[in-house]
Amino acid sequence: MKEVLLSIIGAGPAGLAAGLYGGRAGLKPLLIEKLSPGGQVLVTDWVENYPGFPDGLSGYDLIEKFASHARLFGMEELSGEIEEIQPVDGGFELSLSGGEPVFSRKVIVATGAGPNKLGVPGEEELTGKGVSYCATCDGPFFRDQTVAVVGGGDSAVQEAVFLTKFASKVYLIHRRDSLRAIKILQDKAFSNPKIEMVWNTVVESIKGKDGVESVELFNRSEGRRWELKVDGVFIFVGIRPNTGFLKGLVDLDENGFIVTDDWMRTSRPGIYAAGDCRSKPLRQIVTAAAEGATAAYAVEHDLAMQE
Amino acid sequence: MGDDKVLHVTDGDFEAKVINSDKPVLVDFWAAWCGPCRAIAPVIEELAAEYDGKAVIAKMNVDENPVTPGKFGIRAIPTLILFKDGNVVEQITGAVGKGMIAAALDKAIG
């Protein structure tokens, strides 16, 4: 069995930053990822809040920089998906789907998160046929068409603005009477003539035969129900952590995010967490990277204490 | 690893190379502007090497080839469609792990 000091699960900004710091600390970290590096950053069309890049850059370009930087300092990479982490004497055994297991003394979980679903009729059946969770991937299929964006946070508002590049009309449907998104994004949305706000409204179902044809809406303050014709529905209603494989192993909060201390240590000694999968107030590339660095530092520190 | 085992298909040769193939064909519909498409690309290349001789692993650029994606109602990428004897037997939307795609291929190869 392959034996390493440190395994990092997930190659988004948190995992890659942990790989960089772990590599520089001489830990020869093993980064395990099921796809190629990226994570949710890849669905962002333009990153304009990562410090040091005042002109902004694409999510893909940023993650390429993270990955090539981490590779300079001895990080190894393994392609695979973690099925289980088993505590064993002196560390953990990681079982991978379609690959040999790995023994690792310490593990940093940086598995990130994925989009929440609305959970309404039609959503699952029409996913990929007009229902989307990625505006940069699917926006160009809606040229000169009408789309609905559901949500009121940063992602929803940023992607609504992005979609006006293609769509002729964008309805931004939000269940409250004000947006949660930061002001600079709100200003962009309110000043865009293609965006129409639909306040206090929830989507009750998504309808269509071979593709999305309409959404059924309910205005909660007026008690009004109506059907809105749209060609696409883009859903940005928060995220859910990729932590299912950790149940019973480490403490999770009520939404499944991993609880850690300031050193990114979980409730299970030897397992650390960083990035979007962690329970915390702000989920950004810059916070993920900082936590990856902190987690690698904690691993280095804790290994030295055990020597 | 290069993508030399991956077959690049177009609107022009889709019928001949995919529909009329005597082996199952997995087509990855992608575009350069799609981040998750780039994330899944190495997985497609690995599968092409591993299934060489048993199934055809193909890619179609949706920007350069608008007709075929329209015919299959594709409004999201990456979309993977597995064809067997000219029929759609499996359709996967989004960047998924290798295991899920391999399972679909194994089933089609039978």
Brief summary of the model shown:
Chain A is α/β, with parallel strands linked by helices.
Summarize the structure in words:
The complex is a heterodimer of chains A (307) and B (110). With 307 residues, chain A is α/β, with parallel strands linked by helices. Chain A has helices at 13-24, 59-71, 135-138, 154-163, 183-190, 285-306, and strands at residues 2-9, 30-33, 76-79, 81-88, 91-97, 102-109, 113-115, 131-132, 146-150, 169-173, 195-198, 201-207, 214-219, 224-229, 232-235, 239-241, 271-273. In chain A, strands 1, 2, 3, 4, 5, 6 and 17 form a seven-stranded mixed beta sheet that branches. In chain A, strands 8-15-9-10-11 form a five-stranded parallel beta sheet, covered by helices on one side. In chain A, strand 13 (214-219) and strand 14 (224-229) form a beta hairpin. In chain A, helix 1 runs parallel beside helix 2, helix 1 packs parallel to helix 6 (285-306) and helix 4 packs parallel to helix 5. The model of chain A has no long low-confidence stretch (mean pLDDT 96). With 110 residues, chain B is of the alpha/beta class. Chain B has a single domain, classed as Glutaredoxin. A five-stranded mixed beta sheet of chain B has the order 1-3-2-4-5, with helices on one face. In chain B, a hairpin with a 2-residue loop joins strand 4 (79-84) and strand 5. Chain A binds chain B through residues 34-38, 41-44, 58-60, 79, 81, 97-98, 127-130, 132-134, 136-138, 140-142, 210-211, 232, and chain B through 31, 33-43, 46, 73-79, 91, 93-95, 97-99, 102.
What topology does this entry show?
The complex is a heterodimer of chains A (307) and B (110).
Chain A (H helix, E strand, L loop, with lengths): L1 E8 L3 H12 L5 E4 L25 H13 L4 E4 L1 E8 L2 E7 L4 E8 L3 E3 L15 E2 L2 H4 L7 E5 L3 H10 L5 E5 L9 H8 L4 E4 L2 E7 L6 E6 L4 E6 L2 E4 L3 E3 L29 E3 L11 H22 L1
Parallel strand pairs in A: 1-2, 1-6, 2-3, 6-17, 8-15, 9-10, 9-15, 10-11
Antiparallel strand pairs in A: 4-5, 5-6, 7-16, 12-13, 13-14
Helix pairs in contact in A: 1-2, 1-6, 4-5
Chain B lengths: L6 E2 L5 H6 L5 E6 L4 H16 L5 E6 L5 H5 L7 E6 L2 E7 L4 H12 L1
Parallel strand pairs in B: 1-3, 2-3
Antiparallel strand pairs in B: 2-4, 4-5
